[in-house]
Design a protein that fits this description.
By secondary structure, the protein is α/β, with parallel strands linked by helices. The protein contains 14 helices and 13 strands. The protein has two domains: 2-147, Glycogen Phosphorylase B (Rossmann fold); 167-329, Glycogen Phosphorylase B (Rossmann fold, 3-Layer(aba) Sandwich), CATH 3.40.50.2000.
Amino acid sequence: MNVLIDIAHPAHVHFYRHLRSQLLQLGADVLVTARDKDVTLELLRTFEIPHLVFGRAGHRTWTGQFIELVTRDAFLVWRGRRFQPDVVLTRNPTGVHAARALRAIGVFDTDDGRSAGVHFRSAAAFAHVITAPDCLPESFGSKERRYASYKSLAYLHPSVFTPRQDIRAELGLGANDKFSVLRLVAHDASHDSKARGIDDRARRRIVARLKLHGPVFVSGERDVPADLGGEELRIQPELMHDVLAAASMVVGDSQTIASEAGILATPSIRVNSWVDSSPHITEMERRYGLVFSYGPDQVDQVIERIDRLLVDPRTPETWRRRRDRMLQDKIDLTAWYKQLVLDLTAFR
């Protein structure tokens, strides 16, 4: 069984890395291809995952993004012909484009569906299989395979992740010190072209309020403004989830970080224009109370929520109970995906 995994974002490294290990244990040959975006390549090296690199993120125009898409398609087809994959696993369009040309089974995962715009449309049309959480309300017809889980549970489920207890020492804090995280994203992906996040004025207000309750570490896909008032988060990328698990609160305009923090039982406040456009986060908010979502113009409400949660001594235990309830309903996504690959390749 030959499996090609195409990675275009740091979160994809986490999503597929445990699955890759389990497939290798079953005797599969696994080829990983990667796009140079943020800390993607650093994570791959840290986790000792051999990979081939082609393509770089950061194109600001549709023309640049289209050229990158086409050239990555060509690279994957060229390299795939030597590898001859039975199945291609991906969360981006190039993987399923290449799968069609290589006569492999293209499996595309999405938790945003059609709300991701051209990113979804350019992938879904070519995918043989579309995997998605069962909370996504739209149907993908005969292509769809549903799982009772969230993408973050592929790498944050208790079966594969245990937070480090000494992470505060890495941050220069005492063993019991409380701290918060502000996460900022670049919004430069094709599906983010019309998205709005936290502007400079709002960032300063949020950091100032968080600092009333303890140190604030600011993390960003782009350069962190020096005048925000918080301390830039300087850690190895693979420790980010340990930081999120230990934080008293996470605020930001990142979809992924918002859901990851909630899954780790950390109160999470998401501030962007994708409110009500991400069904998995909406479910985490309305069904389990793990995340709060606000639009970019609702900073006053964000400040009020920060104060309310951080002064309440019951908040940590409340979030642990909510997380436990969520885990009772959700499955280990890596185990589910492994079985899917085995089923798809059983007769090839």
